[in-house]
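ok trying this again, last paste got cut off
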Amino acid sequence: MGTTLTRTAILFILCVTFVSDYALASVDMPDTLVIGKISHNPKKHYRYLKPMSDYVAGKMSDLGIKRSKVRLAKSRKQLISWLRQGKVDWVTETSFAASIFVHEANAEPILLKHKKGDSRYRSLIFTRKDSGINSLQDLKEKIIAFEDEASTSAFYAPATLLIDDGLKLFQLDSVRESPPNGKVGFVFAGEEITIATWVEKGLADAGTVNNQDWA
């Protein structure tokens, strides 16, 4: 896979952690602090969320919290429903997803989380060296792979960059389809490794990741 970068997106805050206006401790488990996240890889996300939630819960014994629980949603819609119902106390997500939860689930941003020691990171758009793609405009009638609709670095930021450059995006159901004339087709891959694989195999013409994943 080549290392050609078409452009780097602006820096942005890594992640926002927030709670809803419901009292801490979910309604169905009043002695339990429940953390939620949208996940296409439950095993991966549970592995790092559980120690974090255990640590915070351990600092809240004076509030009646005795344990913690991780709830992983399959979609943004499901997590919004959990927040509205009080089934999740706090969520760790990217700034883009956080802004949606603030608007649709009455959530409140309270904390910035560092990822691998960094408080900020960048979006990268990459292609194969032999793709012939050297600018954003070269992506017209090509396919770009994003991660998922909740990702700031691998969807929202690069998609905004393309739109600001005058390109029109069209969502495809799979990489086997072709974008309409004059538009950039996009697909959601779900995982960073899938994005890289699709570009390496020529199934997608370009992909998006953050600079940490690229490294």
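PB: full thing came through this time. The longest strand covers residues 32-38.
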